[in-house]
Fold this sequence. Notes:
This protein is mainly α. The protein has five helices and no strands.
Amino acid sequence: MSDFRKHLDKSLENEEFKKEWDNLELRYAVVEQLIKLRITYNLSQTELAKKIGTTQAVISRIENGTVNVGIDFLEKVARAFDKKVEISIF
């Protein structure tokens, strides 16, 4: 188990921390998937931005977690890569 995972597991024992972590977990999971997709296709932020019709600055803010993306944005990304957005609630 990594040092980060050990630290995270210990931190999650704190109820306040766990609540905040749970609130942000989905956002970070989406960011992680977007970054993985970009890397898989060997695209820069600028190239991805052009492919989906936005700017590099927007992609940067999303990847840094400072912008929360909506369903419309996710669908635009999925269409650009001939993929579908899938969710799992449970």
